[in-house]
Amino acid sequence: MNGTPPFGPPAGDGDGGDAFTPIYTARVTVSGGGSAHGRATGRARSADGALDLDLRAPEELGGDAAGPDPEQLFAAGFAASFHGVLSLVARRHRLDPAPITVEATVAVGRDPAGGGYRLRAGLAVRWPGVGPETAAPLLAKAAALCPYAEMTRHGIPATITLAP
What we know:
alpha+beta, N-terminal domain of TfIIb, GMP Synthetase, Chain A, domain 3, 3-stranded antiparallel sheet, 3 helices
């Protein structure tokens, strides 16, 4: 293997050949702790200090559940992203986004094909006062615009490198 790891940058930018220009980049470092069932524990800190928390494994995976786990963090990001996009779509259609709530569910389980882990995700949107005939096309529009929804449908280009 020439010392090259079995992963690395995707060919091109991985975005269908179109140039990708980041608008914002988040950087979070996880360090310390141990692991149980392949689960990270320790501390997660963002480069700007806005996020600084202890990670814990859920009880179902042998942890103490004394802090958030990666699935909860992903669920929060997914729900927040979709909520933001749906709120924008609602305003564009002269609807009040204030009553909208988005609940994300993220489940981790074994991958039967490879023995590793897999995620499943879902969103439940509550929009009191807006009927299904109005909400359905707006949910579809938000799903087409939301980067987290896109990621759950098609994956995202990712790189894994060994830093110097």
